[in-house]
């Protein structure tokens, strides 16, 4: 009560004693003036002395035993403010991927918040109700703000609070990794520790991807306005061991999305593919790894084109029937799914293809608009090495770095191999030993490459070359 009284006085810009006098006068008026007079005038009187609006958000819905979604969104939204302002807090461990601690206001605590320069006040309240058979507690949040900002708070601010609360909840939830099996999705908890911080790649490229993902995930209004389905396609390509799968995990952790790992070879046909895709939830990444190996998509299209040209009349119909009995997923089926299906599903989805052989893919599959962003994951460069040295050896710089830089420029080693060579054998790591181990491995790769080249040249320019 004292807290509430002080906040009210604070909001009115009055001292506690002036507010106390006003409240005393109000009590006298209530006692001596006719009831109907108060009812008519009370609104104006109250607005004069207390020009604040209050909104209550109950914890339980009218069904009493269900927790209100808005209450829980508000609770989540207020966590950040609560941790810096409230004196008494409630703590609970969130069962998410990081097992973090969630703090919320204890009963009868108050905090303030600011939105577009407008200050509002949130209080957490509890009342105890006794019925004949039981006694129960009713919790609620009370939002107080100046009447002047009624419009702004009722529309923009509350929308902002509920949206932010939902987004934080989504990011903190236990996320899932789905795989398709026998035409159904099954899932396990997704607990990959990869992050963009630990991903070894050129920092400028990395930042560009992170910015692109942020813009996409905040782009609901934008996609609505331009009339496009809220989806984005990523093509990750590069040699094995350059971090394509790791990047998908980092993307999922960055955005707080689930992953649907679609195994195309296990999909019976286009209809099943369509159904599986429709069943994916929003805020998810749908991945098709090693798409070049998934099914023979490229040749399928070429073959069917040739077939179509040859076919005519009933033979064409017959062939199609036969084909549908045996066919698996076709390229056109996949293209239709990538293009069309999303417009039927609300919510944001990323679709990511990975391949070791980008040149093998049908251009139609990866054209912009389908795969909007093409990201090459190359062999390990010096900047990528620095990330690994920081992660594995806690090293920002070292006199051996220049030697490593020179060797990386002359050789082709994947980040997976560099990481393996940097793996500490002792704790704490013997940094020099690890760097020397990497240098040794790089030198060996260089020697092998030189030897192979010499053999190749010998074959090319050998005595048999050019002879009949
Ligand atoms: N860029 C990278 N940054 C950090 N770690 C990496 C990177 N690339 C590879 N690694 C490490 O190497 C291992 C293999 O990487 P990953 O599976 O992501 O490669 P990939 O490109 O998907 O390979 P493939 O094409 O064979 O599927 C990972 O466990 C990861 O620890």
Automatic annotation (TrEMBL):
GO terms for molecular function: ATP binding; ATP hydrolysis activity. The chain crosses the membrane at residues 12-33. It catalyses: ATP + H2O = ADP + phosphate + H(+). Keywords: ATP-binding, Hydrolase, Magnesium, Membrane, Nucleotide-binding, Transmembrane, Transmembrane helix. Residues 302-328 are annotated as: Disordered. Residues 230-381 form the AAA+ ATPase domain. Residues 302-326 have a biased composition (Basic and acidic residues). It comes from the Eukaryota. Pfam families: AAA, AAA_assoc, AAA_lid_At3g28540. CDD domains: RecA-like_BCS1. Its cofactor is Mg(2+). Gene3D superfamilies: 6.10.280.40, P-loop containing nucleotide triphosphate hydrolases (3.40.50.300). GO terms for biological process: response to stress. PANTHER family: BCS1 AAA-TYPE ATPASE. Belongs to the AAA ATPase family. BCS1 subfamily. This is AAA+ ATPase domain-containing protein.
């Amino acid at each position: 009560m004292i807290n509430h009284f002080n906040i009210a006085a604070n909001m009115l810009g009055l001292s506690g004693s002036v507010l106390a006098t006003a409240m005393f006068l109000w009590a006298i008026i209530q006692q001596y003036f006719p009831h109907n007079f108060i009812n008519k005038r009370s609104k104006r009187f109250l607005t004069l002395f207390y020009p604040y609006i209050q909104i209550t958000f109950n914890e339980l819905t009218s069904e009493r035993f269900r927790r209100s979604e808005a209450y829980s969104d508000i609770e989540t939204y207020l966590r950040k403010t609560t941790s810096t302002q409230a004196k008494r807090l409630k703590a609970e461990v969130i069962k998410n991927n990081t097992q973090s601690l969630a703090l919320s206001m204890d009963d009868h605590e108050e905090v303030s918040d600011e939105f577009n320069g407008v200050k509002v006040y949130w209080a957490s309240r509890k009342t105890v109700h006794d019925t004949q058979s039981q006694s129960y507690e009713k919790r609620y949040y009370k939002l107080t703000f100046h009447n002047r900002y009624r419009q702004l708070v009722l529309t923009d601010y509350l929308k902002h609070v509920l949206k932010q609360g939902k987004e934080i909840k989504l990011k903190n939830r236990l996320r899932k990794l789905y795989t398709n099996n026998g035409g159904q999705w099954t899932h396990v908890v997704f607990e990959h520790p990869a992050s963009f911080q630990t991903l070894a790649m050129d920092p400028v490229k990395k930042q560009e991807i992170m910015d692109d993902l942020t813009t996409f995930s905040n782009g609901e209004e934008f996609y609505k306005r331009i009339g496009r389905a809220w989806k984005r396609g990523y093509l990750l390509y590069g040699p094995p061991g350059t971090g394509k799968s790791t990047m998908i995990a980092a993307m999922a952790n960055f955005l707080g999305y689930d992953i649907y790992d679609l195994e195309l070879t296990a999909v019976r046909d286009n209809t099943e593919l369509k159904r599986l895709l429709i069943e994916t939830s929003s805020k998810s990444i749908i991945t098709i790894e090693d798409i070049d190996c998934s099914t023979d998509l490229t040749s399928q299209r070429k073959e069917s084109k040739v077939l179509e040209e040859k076919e005519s009349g009933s033979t064409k119909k017959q062939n199609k029937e036969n084909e549908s009995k045996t066919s698996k997923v076709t390229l056109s089926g996949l293209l239709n799914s990538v293009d069309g299906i999303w417009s039927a599903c609300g919510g944001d989805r990323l679709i990511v293809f990975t391949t070791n052989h980008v040149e093998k893919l049908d251009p139609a599959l990866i054209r912009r608009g389908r795969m909007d962003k093409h990201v090459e994951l190359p062999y390990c460069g010096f900047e990528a090495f620095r990330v690994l040295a920081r992660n594995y050896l806690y090293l920002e710089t070292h006199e051996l770095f220049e030697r490593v830089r020179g060797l990386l420029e002359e050789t082709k080693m994947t980040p997976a191999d560099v990481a393996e060579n940097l793996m500490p054998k002792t704790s704490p790591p013997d940094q020099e030993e690890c760097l020397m181990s990497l240098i040794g491995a790089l030198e060996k790769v260089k020697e092998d490459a030189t030897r192979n080249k010499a053999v190749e040249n010998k074959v090319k320019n050998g005595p048999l070359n050019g002879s009949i």
